[in-house]
């Protein structure tokens, strides 16, 4: 299922694959080995950068190209030549000695016939640029910036604060393309022009906040190189969601669409589970039952119509309920409270092979003995468990593990957690990151900031459970749910409260699912 998702992702119009800087290096090399000279790729890259400048600024504008010592600088030399040729007033500032430029960058520098001046903060300020092309560092950034590069980054940001526009080549200098980390200091760009595919660092925070608009330019690297590179991370988008969403069959019945159990908290904390239950139903689960402790039955029954309510007393009650195999997905955590009773409920849910989503208190209840929890998770069938922590829950559970504590990015932390638990881990945030045991990963970045509101996470838990119940694998369900959740928040807009997310699901799903069978039957009636 997960590999089908990675394959289906390739069908969409916006390229979903995100390439680490190492993978991008392999894509470059593979293209060069197949006969396209590196200087051709560099010429195409520099032209794409020049075109980005031309799209928004008239000839005659003052442009500073800040070139670094590697191929990113080479792209800058090409952009400088093309902009000067059409009437931009270009100042080329090089950080480093011209004689140290190598290979394609040295060739690009030879093709530039204007003056090349040493890059200093003073020279940059004196040029009073309307536009700065940031070609200092790209994929080759391999250590924190210090000394002159750091001063130059500061000067670019100061010029931008004074009104200059900044177009970054590939990445804003200082941003790590693989991790999104700011390595000491980083340029703030209005636009970043990257090549062939976006990089995780364009979408992970804080890199995403530095890159401005993202333009992905075709520089002549064929898509076929992806078969060699085999990228391990995608950006979730509508094509992928459309390809994954279950479409009910005319011949089907509600049990074909799965039956979700959401475990409710006690009488005073039922809201979270109700939000999750409604979301599971809205995303298409055939039936949803709230497993409710005795003191919450009345309030749950009064507050629900389509969602059913069953009294289940503690872990034994849940285990008894789940003996009915038609309950094929269980969600628990929201509103349950932290402690032994919740740990026991989780134990009942994890027994057997139905799909399980664990969130909130179902995660926090294990912070004192995470190893026992990880062991129970690892014993489950692959692709059946999803954990949906926010940052705090993730840190409490995983940060003591050295491989997670020392990981260099959100992507690596989530991958390490998935490896450790065998579960699909979805770490929430503006750059929600999802990974499975094998290191397949997805970033979902469509959520607006107003999604950060009480109860939004409970709705996500329900969406994941609803999709699991309809037969999606854990990775696909988590990625699809995260995108639907973010898109629903965009549809509602500012003023969103968690209840709204489920209510816009029908109009959102209608845009994604073609209903050919319904259209046909309407037509039949007209003919009769
Ligand atoms: N043939 C190719 O590989 C292509 C590469 N392209 C460009 O090439 C770039 C990558 O080029 P490179 O691998 O040469 O890398 P960069 O140009 O990003 O930087 C490499 C240089 O910067 C130095 N450096 C790294 N971190 C530093 C720091 N913190 N302080 C001081 N110096 C530092 C390195 O020692 C090295 O000299 C891409 O970002 C892209 O812009 C494009 O031209 C497309 C084709
Ligand atoms: N800055 C942000 N931009 C976009 N989405 C965000 C941001 N911060 C949080 N979110 C999303 O909001 C939701 C909050 O969930 P959670 O923290 O579990 O809240 P709760 O426990 O109140 O339900 C998550 O889906 C998360 O990804
Ligand atoms: K750059």
Automatic annotation (TrEMBL):
Essential cofactor(s): K(+); Mg(2+)
Keyword ATP-binding: yes
Protein EC: 4.2.1.136, 5.1.99.6
YjeF C-terminal domain mapped to chain residues: 237-512
Keywords: ATP-binding, Isomerase, Lyase, Metal-binding, Multifunctional enzyme, NAD, NADP, Nucleotide-binding, Potassium
Single GO molecular function: NAD(P)HX epimerase activity
Reaction(s) catalysed by this chain's protein: (6S)-NADHX + ADP = AMP + phosphate + NADH + H(+); (6S)-NADPHX + ADP = AMP + phosphate + NADPH + H(+); (6R)-NADHX = (6S)-NADHX; (6R)-NADPHX = (6S)-NADPHX
Cofactor: how bound: Binds 1 potassium ion per subunit.
Top-level lineage group: Bacteria
Official protein name in the record: Bifunctional NAD(P)H-hydrate repair enzyme
Gene responsible for this protein: nnr
């Amino acid at each position: 299922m997960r590999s089908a998702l990675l394959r289906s992702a390739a069908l969409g119009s916006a390229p979903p694959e995100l390439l680490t800087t190492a993978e991008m290096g392999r894509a470059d090399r593979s293209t060069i080995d197949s006969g396209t000279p590196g200087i051709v790729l560099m010429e195409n890259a520099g032209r794409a950068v020049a075109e980005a400048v031309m799209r928004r600024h008239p000839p005659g504008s003052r442009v500073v190209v800040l070139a670094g010592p590697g191929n990113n600088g080479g792209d800058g030399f090409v952009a400088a030549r093309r902009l000067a040729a059409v009437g931009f007033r270009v100042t080329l500032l090089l950080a480093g000695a011209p004689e140290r430029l190598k290979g394609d960058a040295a060739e690009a520098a030879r093709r530039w016939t204007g003056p090349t001046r040493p890059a200093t903060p003073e020279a940059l300020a004196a040029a009073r640029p309307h536009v700065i092309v940031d070609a200092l560092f790209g994929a080759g950034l391999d250590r924190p910036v210090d000394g002159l590069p750091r001063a130059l980054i500061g000067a670019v940001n100061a010029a931008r604060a004074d009104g200059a526009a900044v177009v970054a080549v590939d990445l804003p200098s200082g941003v790590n393309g693989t991790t999104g980390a700011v390595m000491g200091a980083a340029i703030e760009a209005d636009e970043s022009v990257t090549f062939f595919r976006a990089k995780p660092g364009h979408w992970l925070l804080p890199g995403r906040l530095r890159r401005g608009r993202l333009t992905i330019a075709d520089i002549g690297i064929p898509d076929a190189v992806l078969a060699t590179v085999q990228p391990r991370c995608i950006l979730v988008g509508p094509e992928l969601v459309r390809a994954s969403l279950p479409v009910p069959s005319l011949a089907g019945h509600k049990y074909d669409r799965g039956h979700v159990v959401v475990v409710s908290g006690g009488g005073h904390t039922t809201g979270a589970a109700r939000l999750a239950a409604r979301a599971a139903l809205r995303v298409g689960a055939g039936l949803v039952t709230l497993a409710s402790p005795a003191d919450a039955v009345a309030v749950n029954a009064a507050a629900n119509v389509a969602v059913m309510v069953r009294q289940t007393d503690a872990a034994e009650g849940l285990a008894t309920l789940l003996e009915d195999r038609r309950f094929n997905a269980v969600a628990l955590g929201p509103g349950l409270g932290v402690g032994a009773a919740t740990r026991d409920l989780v134990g009942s849910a994890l027994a057997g092979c139905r799909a399980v989503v664990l969130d909130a208190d179902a995660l926090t209840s294990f912070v004192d003995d995470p190893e026992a929890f990880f062991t129970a998770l690892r014993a489950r069938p692959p692709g059946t468990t999803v954990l949906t922590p926010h940052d705090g829950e993730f840190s409490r559970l995983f940060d003591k593990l050295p491989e997670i504590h020392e990981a260099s990015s959100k992507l690596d932390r989530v991958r390490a957690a998935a490896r450790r638990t065998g579960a699909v881990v979805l770490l929430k945030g503006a750059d929600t990151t999802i990974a499975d045991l094998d290191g397949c990963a997805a970033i979902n970045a469509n959520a607006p900031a107003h999604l950060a509101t009480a109860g939004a996470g409970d709705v996500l838990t329900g969406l994941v459970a609803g999709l699991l119940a309809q037969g999606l694998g854990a990775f696909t369900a988590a990625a699809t749910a995260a995108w639907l959740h973010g898109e629903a928040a965009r549809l509602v807009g500012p003023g969103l409260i968690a209840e709204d997310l489920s209510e816009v699901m029908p109009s959102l799903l209608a845009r994604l699912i073609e209903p050919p069978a319904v259209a046909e039957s309407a037509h039949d009636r007209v003919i009769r």
